[in-house]
Amino acid sequence: MRFRRQKRAENSVNLxxxxxxVFLLLIFFMVSTTFTRETRLMVDLPEAxxxxxxxxxxxxxxxxxxxxxxxxxxxxxxxxxxxxxxxxALERVAGGDKSMPLIITADAEATHQAVVTxxxxxxxxxxxxxxxxxxxxxxTKP
Length: 142
Hints:
Elements: H1 16-32, E1 43-44, E2 61-65, E3 71-73, E4 76-77, H2 83-94, E5 102-106, H3 112-125, E6 130-132
Parallel strand pairs: 1-6, 2-5, 5-6
Antiparallel strand pairs: 2-3, 3-4
Helix pairs in contact: 2-3
């Protein structure tokens, strides 16, 4: 009796189902990912040494942080130190124009928290052009 030899199946891995699963996972992660836009405050920090700026633009808002942490906006003192009061004053002075440059001038002995509160209030109000004033260091003779 003559038996026919059976053809041997090739030993290989079929990659098609694996590729399908990878594409499905990719689509799943793309659809389920949430894209959040974080609000960041862009700050232009001037150099402490160098040439002085000539003249400030006439259409600027200046926030002054005093040594005790009180605020004044364009020379007018605010009634308290709350961020909401500062935001309301910035809205009133800006008149809806969020592109106006905002300058924060803080006393050297003002607390870091008071300056950060002013920066946060400006950022939450929507101002994008923020500068912090400095002065040139005094030369000390040895």
